[in-house]
Specification:
Chain lengths: 264, 306
């Protein structure tokens, strides 16, 4: 479904602060595969997602989505087939518009923009049904502005918006990191449910090692712009956080000093 | 204030309300401070006067609208394609339009429309008489208000509003925000130019300097409307901009009535906008002072008991 071929990205080329963020990364995802990504700060996780979604132009390599080479597609064109949820809850929704208006924009994804009504009665009923599945009571607040929602509610809504038109690829960039633990767990469960039901091909960055092993079907670990570990199947199902840390330190030659990752 | 002055203020207010709606689109829905307004207002007026001189006042309004759209497109392209900041992009277009407007006006800085038919003079001969200006402007305004409301509730209208809120989200949902900004600024400046075209025909002249400070007047109208009539729903916001524009004219008429020289009007406009924009901060300060005072009062009343 997704194929990333020797993808490289350097920030601040030619300046003193030149930083190689991605170093010839190769990654291939099958249909329906749910991959979790972990790694320390500056490992290149977010950069990888931003290169796939087209936020950053890449220096070298190719990105192929469902056998279409999208390397030179602008961000908005790729977005038609890619659903995204960001770390910042404010980034995924329009705060001054109502919940149903936000959903209507998401629901129109890939359809001609044009002068058709922004939302019909039928759409509204569908939105209500989908909101009920979130189990946050949002189905009764469809006419309220999104600015009134909490961060967790917003992330749940963004997740629904990212998947209401089934994407070929779902990118989740630490989408629970800014939430308090209870609601974070709820959003994670929701993620698991939606990805499973729709069998979505998913890449999820997390800082939580336990979650990275519990969720999904495959885990990759990044370090200094490279994928240093990649495991699935039995190797993954028998993996523990302790062994993961041990192996990480052996392979990267670095010590995991990120408390957030260990304790999260 | 005499009835005639009142009627005149309403007429002007209704025509300027069209401009206020244009400013509402760029400043509020797109969240972009577009200063090309000053130029596109005169552009509309110039086109309208030239066409009226040629005996085509109605066609003049239509062409003025599209000329304004063109100006908006230039600003949008400067911003989206060449990555020039919105503020600067607007100023560049405004500057270029100054020369362009003089070209449209045949090199003259001021053209009067003497004994030429305008959309208003045609109606004046009917039973409407003196009320023709008021009525025609009102009909045009209501038609625009209706169309704009419909437009803002289409798919394109939805993404237009969302782009001002959060352009990241709109791109992540597969919509080209560059195109949305282009459409928005085109419509915005089109309305501003149409407003200029109507003003020119109503006052029977165009002057190269008549657009100075228009963006501030438009913004003042939008903000006055918001402060007084609220921002609850989209329809309410649109009406607020319109009523704000009319109210602004009444304020100006009042200022003139109490003897303020007309050359001071721009100063008054600037002060109104500055005050209106500072409103939230002033309110916050006031409530803070109030809280401080009550605390001081409480402590003062406690001390004798202690």
């Amino acid at each position: 479904m997704l194929k990333v071929e020797s993808l490289s990205k350097t920030f601040g080329k030619g300046s003193n602060n030149e930083k190689l963020a991605l170093d010839k990364v190769n990654l291939s995802l099958e249909e329906g595969e749910f991959v979790t990504i972990i790694g320390g700060n500056g490992a290149g996780k977010s950069t990888l997602l931003n290169c796939i979604s087209g936020v950053y132009e890449i220096d070298e390599g190719r990105v192929i989505l469902d056998s279409v080479d999208v390397t030179f597609f602008p961000e908005y064109k790729r977005s038609v087939h890619i659903g995204r949820v960001f770390q910042d809850p404010l980034r995924g929704t329009a705060y001054d518009m109502t919940i149903e208006e936000n959903l209507a924009i998401a629901f129109a994804k890939g359809k001609p923009t044009g002068l058709r009504p922004g939302m019909t009665k039928k759409d509204s009923l569908l939105f209500k049904e989908r909101l009920e599945l979130l189990d946050l009571g949002l189905e009764n607040r469809m006419n309220q502005k999104v600015g009134l929602l909490s961060g967790g509610q917003r992330q749940a809504l963004t997740l629904l918006m990212a998947t209401i038109v089934k994407p070929k690829l779902l990118l989740l960039d630490e989408h629970t990191a800014a939430l308090d633990p209870t609601i974070a767990r709820k959003v994670l469960n929701l993620t698991r449910k939606i990805v499973h039901e729709e069998t979505l091909c998913t890449l999820m960055i997390t800082h939580n090692m336990k979650a990275s092993l519990e969720l999904g079907t495959r885990t990759i670990i990044m370090h200094e712009g490279q994928i240093i570990m990649d495991f699935k199947g039995q190797e993954r199902s028998t993996m523990t956080v302790e062994r993961l840390i041990e192996q990480f330190e052996k392979r990267s030659g670095a010590v995991l000093d990120n408390d957030r990752m260990l304790l999260g | 204030m005499t009835f005639l002055v009142l009627q005149g203020s309403f007429e002007l207010g209704i025509i300027y309300a069209i401009m206020a709606l244009g400013v509402f689109i760029s400043f509020r829905t797109l969240n972009m401070p577009d200063l090309s307004v000053d130029g596109s207002f005169v552009l509309g007026a110039a086109v309208s006067v030239i066409m009226s001189s040629g005996g085509q006042p109605l066609l003049g309004l239509v062409i003025a609208f599209f000329a304004g759209c063109g100006a908006g497109v230039i600003t949008a392209l400067l911003h989206t394609k060449l990555k020039i900041q919105p503020l600067l992009a607007g100023i560049l277009t405004m500057l270029a339009l100054y020369s362009l407007n003089l070209k449209v006006m045949g090199g003259r800085a001021n053209i009067p429309l003497i004994n030429k038919a305008t959309v208003f003079s045609v109606l004046e001969k009917t039973v409407l008489g003196d009320y023709s200006k008021l009525l025609l402007s009102l009909i045009i305004l209501l038609a625009i208000l209706f169309l704009l409301y419909l437009f803002l509730n289409t798919r394109l209208g939805f993404v237009l509003r969302a782009t001002g809120d959060n352009d990241h989200m709109v791109r992540a949902l597969g919509v080209n925000t560059d195109f949305v900004i282009l459409m928005g600024l085109a419509i915005s400046n089109g309305l501003v130019a149409l407003s200029g075209a109507l003003i020119a025909q109503s006052q029977s002249y165009v002057d190269i300097g008549m657009g100075i400070g228009m963006v501030i007047i438009g913004l003042a109208s939008v903000i006055i409307g918001e402060v007084i009539f609220g921002t609850k729903s989209l329809l309410r916001r649109l009406f607020a901009a319109v009523l704000g524009a009319i109210l602004y004219r009444l304020i100006i008429a009042f200022a003139l009535e109490i003897g303020m020289p007309s050359t001071d009007l721009k100063l008054v406009s600037a002060v109104i906008v500055a005050l209106a924009m500072a409103m939230p901060v002033i309110k916050k300060r006031l409530s803070l002072v109030k809280r401080k005072l009550t605390v001081a009062h409480h402590e003062g009343s406690k001390r004798p008991n202690a």
